[in-house]
Specification:
The structure is a single chain. This protein has a domain at about 15-105. It is built from five helices and two strands, in the order αααααββ. The protein has helices spanning about 15-35, 50-70, 80-85, 100-105, 120-125; strands at about 130-135, 140-145. A two-stranded antiparallel sheet has the order 1-2. Strand 1 and strand 2 form a beta hairpin.
């Protein structure tokens, strides 16, 4: 049950639920920053250095959100949000779109490639390296793509 001090003319039931869900996403992002993902806890804004560090963490969280959105077709994420939102009531539990259900069932995206979780994709990307080695007048580049 949600309750707001705003009148129905300013914020209807669907808007109230959307605002609460938005707040939940912000709280989840801060929880992610403070725990296993970045471990930036505790945050005390007493010095300019710490304020800058906190802003950097917020920018990193924003970058992660943009990455998730851009990579949604190859992730276990609902990349067809308009279809998913058309199927759901703002007060009912979220229902995945048909595209998301198809990805979950087949473990493949629309192009036939395997779908992965965001975390496993980040783990894989963390193993990729590119090294440039210079020995006297010789330069060569080696890429490591093993996991």
């Amino acid at each position: 049950m949600l309750r707001t001090s705003l009148g129905a003319a300013r914020l209807d039931a669907a808007g109230t639920v959307a605002a609460d869900n938005s707040l939940s996403r912000v709280e989840r992002a801060f929880r992610s920053l403070k725990t296993v993902d970045l471990e930036v806890r505790p945050v005390f804004h007493r010095t300019e250095h710490r304020v800058r560090a906190h802003l950097l963490c917020l920018l990193a969280d924003d970058l992660e959100g943009q990455m998730r959105q851009a990579l949604a077709p190859i992730l276990f994420a609902d990349h067809d949000r308009p279809a998913a939102e058309a199927l759901r009531s703002p007060v009912a539990s979220a229902t995945p779109s048909p595209a998301a259900r198809r990805k979950a069932a087949t473990k493949r995206c629309e192009t036939g490639e395997p779908v992965v979780s965001f975390r496993s994709l980040m783990r894989h990307l963390a193993t990729l390296t590119r090294n440039t080695v210079r020995l006297a007048a010789t330069t060569f580049t080696a890429a490591n793509t093993t996991t």
